[in-house]
UniProtKB/TrEMBL annotation:
Keywords: Membrane, Transmembrane, Transmembrane helix. This is DHA3 family tetracycline resistance protein-like MFS transporter. The chain crosses the membrane at residues 16-38, 44-65, 77-105, 161-185, 262-285, 297-323. Pfam families: MFS_1. SUPFAM superfamilies: MFS general substrate transporter. PANTHER family: PERMEASE, MAJOR FACILITATOR SUPERFAMILY-RELATED, TRANSPORT PROTEIN-RELATED. Its main location: membrane. It comes from Kribbella amoyensis.
Length: 422
């Protein structure tokens, strides 16, 4: 089933709008979700790890099938289904504070995320063309960061009422966003396989094989899949463990409170502001390098900063210096994401674009599922060692970027050959 392309809104503005709202709603849920899990639901450290593992397994199992659906049926339909499922997951965990309900919520939101993963980038690339999409991805990152700031502030305010309130608002808002997109989101340049020609399992297998072939034959795609895998091996543990280290420090009292819920809202805001400022500065100062057709040098530099930040965070024993190292890592990752996304999309054709993007995301999920539990077990003996290993895992990534060389420009080569013949 595909949705009719009845939307009349401008594609780029729609892309900015739904990503801004999406990031706002995600911040509503995630700013205080860890505090909610521990304080209201009473999850143990093992249960917290199982929550993350359940989410990543859901993403891993459904990433490829949902990406293929976006390629064969409708990017728009895939995105809308994703938002509705994510919203349902957020509502479930907010309204039913129990471990099993939260596990079920992770499955819902994980499946929903896979419907959106790759489909939104593939949709906007189809609508405006691969040659114009690089600056759009960079601007979208800034819109997303702005939405995250607003969502973080709102989550802190609503969390003063009760910790489940921001998640409840977020879940309802996510479902509403999906319903609004049914009416306003255009889809003019995607042509799904006609119903009469659909041989579902045959087309699924063919599209999947095409994605595998692209990943194997193109050095950029192959390397980005490997980089995504390595990043996942490191990120699951770091994302779960950094809060544990920060909570070991004594927070200063501000406005009469040193409550971790207050400080985690403040820390999230500071990190997001830094990422937004860095994105704006880099885009203004070095737009040509950001939108470079082969930005391997810039991505290698940002990956190096991420390594320094993670290892620095592991070793530093001062609260604010440790946070500065963590923010350095987050800023580098934030800046790299749209540059890498544009680079990947330029190396893909429309017919397999969503599928290959999903493969990159799936590689990250595999890494997180494989790397998280061992590093979590190591953290039981030494938190610092686990965080240090998490940083060391990332060290091959700058080299992987630097070893990539630009592919010959076929059009330029053809012109040169023609000129030589004349």
């Amino acid at each position: 089933m595909s949705l009719p392309a009845r939307g009349t809104a401008d594609a780029v503005r729609t892309y900015y709008a739904f990503n801004g709202v999406w990031s706002f709603l995600l911040a509503l849920t995630f700013t205080l979700s860890a505090v909610y899990y521990v304080r209201d639901v009473g999850l143990s450290p093992l249960q917290l790890v199982l929550v993350g593992t359940t989410l990543e397994l859901s993403c891993f199992l459904f990433e490829i099938p949902t990406g293929i659906v976006a390629d064969l049926y409708s990017r728009k339909l895939s995105i809308i289904i994703g938002f509705v499922l994510i919203g349902a997951g957020f509502l479930l965990q907010a309204l039913v504070p129990a471990f099993l309900a939260i596990l079920a919520a992770q499955v819902l939101w994980g499946i929903g995320y896979t419907f959106t993963s790759g489909a939104d980038q593939a949709w906007i690339t189809d609508e405006i063309g691969a040659d114009r999409v690089g600056p759009v991805f960079v601007r979208e990152q800034q819109v997303t960061l702005t939405g995250t700031i607003l969502g973080t502030v709102t989550a802190g305010a609503l969390g003063l009422i009760a910790l489940p309130v921001p998640m409840t608002v977020s879940g309802a808002g996510m479902i509403l966003l999906g319903l609004v997109l049914v009416l306003v989101m255009p889809e003019r340049n995607f042509h799904p396989t006609p119903r009469a020609e659909r041989e579902t399992f045959t087309h699924l297998a063919k599209t999947f094989r095409t994605g595998i072939a692209v990943a194997r034959s193109r050095p950029v795609v192959r390397s980005l899949v490997l980089i995504s895998l390595i990043s996942g091996l490191s990120s699951e543990a770091f994302d779960r463990l950094w809060t544990v280290k920060v909570l070991e420090f004594r927070f200063p009292e501000v406005f009469g409170t040193s409550d971790p819920a207050f400080w985690f809202t403040v820390l999230a805001l500071i990190g997001t502001f830094l990422a937004l400022a860095a994105s704006l500065v880099v885009n203004r100062v070095s737009a040509a390098r950001v939108n470079n057709l082969h930005p391997n040098g810039l991505l290698a530099f940002l990956a190096g900063l991420q390594v320094v930040g993670v290892i620095g965070f592991a070793l530093i024993g001062s609260l604010w210096f440790a946070l500065a190292a963590m923010w350095l890592s987050r800023v580098a990752l934030t800046l790299a994401a749209p540059i890498e996304a544009a680079w990947l999309n330029r190396n893909l054709e429309s017919g397999s674009r969503a599928t290959v993007i999903s493969m990159v995301s799936q590689a990250n999920a595999i890494g997180q599922v494989a790397g998280g539990p061992p590093l979590g077990a190591l953290a039981g003996r030494s938190l610092r060692t686990a965080l240090m290993v998490s940083g060391l895992i990332l060290t091959p990534i700058p080299w992987l970027y630097l070893r990539l060389r630009p592919a010959p420009d076929r059009a330029v080569t053809d012109r040169a050959a023609t000129a030589g013949a004349d």
